[in-house]
Amino acid sequence: MNKVVMFVDDEKFILKSLKRLMKSEPFESVYMNSGPEALEYLEENKIDLIVTDIRMPDMDGFELLSIIKDKYPKVLRVALSGFTESRTIYKLIEKNIAKIYLFKPWDNFELKKNINRILEFEDVLTNNKLLELINNLDSLPVLPKLYQDLKALIDQDASIEEVGKLVEIDQAISSKVLRLANSAFYGRKTGSISEAILSIGLNNLKNMVLASSIFHGSKEEMESLDKMWVHSINTNKLTLLIYEKLLNKKIPTIYGSAGLLHDIGKVILHIFYSDSYKEIINNADDADNNLINLELEAYNVTHQDIGAYLLNWWELPHAYVEAAMYHHRPNDARIVNYEIVGVVHIANYYSLKRLSLENAHSYLDKTVFSKLGISVEDLEALIEELD
To answer: 94 and 187: one domain?
Structure first.
């Protein structure tokens, strides 16, 4: 059965242009001139994906996507917006009202390619083998209460002091926040939670709370989980540094914790399949007998598949889901957010190398460097500086 994509724009000439462009694509298209018209259609018809303009009269794209998220949560949501609407885009992605944003004016080839990639990616997340494993788990971790309370405060534009008071309730999280803010990476010397939060940023704080709640197990499991946590922290730091020092720009705030959450699937496998997964990790190497192949043999899916499913279930931005799914295969044709996935791929590899693990079970695809416009030599010089 063909997938159905709905396009919504108040300008009829744009809809005509889209109609010509999508004529030969492998999905069915429908075109609506307003938000109310789109909602009326959805009352009696099923669609798989909506692509809507943001700036429209009467009902804008923000409101339309919010209603669709609430009433039709399985519909994939994409915002089509101008470069001047960056604040709106941030809110759309941060609140998971839109999975992805695409800019106007668009490149015809890129627009078609990205829509097809999004549809294909959804098929990957709902493949039978992955769903079978997920259904066999006792239960997936739910969003922790501290994370939900923190997200609610941030959504209400609460002060740093209010956020700090909430974080201070959890001593384990507080100590991690202070350690990170006082590390050489951030260079802060403070015992104040509020000052530490200012250093690392609200979005990173929120995702740190989320990740930290998952990297937690019994006393016997904590040694392995601690190594995974350190690796994830280092991967995230290196991701931020590659952006700042080699790409010469700040990482988009909403993607600032992609490195922290990229390996969450390993944690899930470790929690639910502790003994067998430890054996897999011990047997893995960088050659043919690698971690991914061993995971596939044992579970029919990989830690990348499970991590992506969980982050998508938690409704995190699509870039996080892609970084989890593709950090070992950064040239997959289905990737929309290539830059962040490529950077996390590099950061993951070098973070494992810096931990001096005998079985790092990772490999480096050097074509990523040329695609990002950076050199291996510059990166390794940066890492030497860190050491």
So the answer is: no
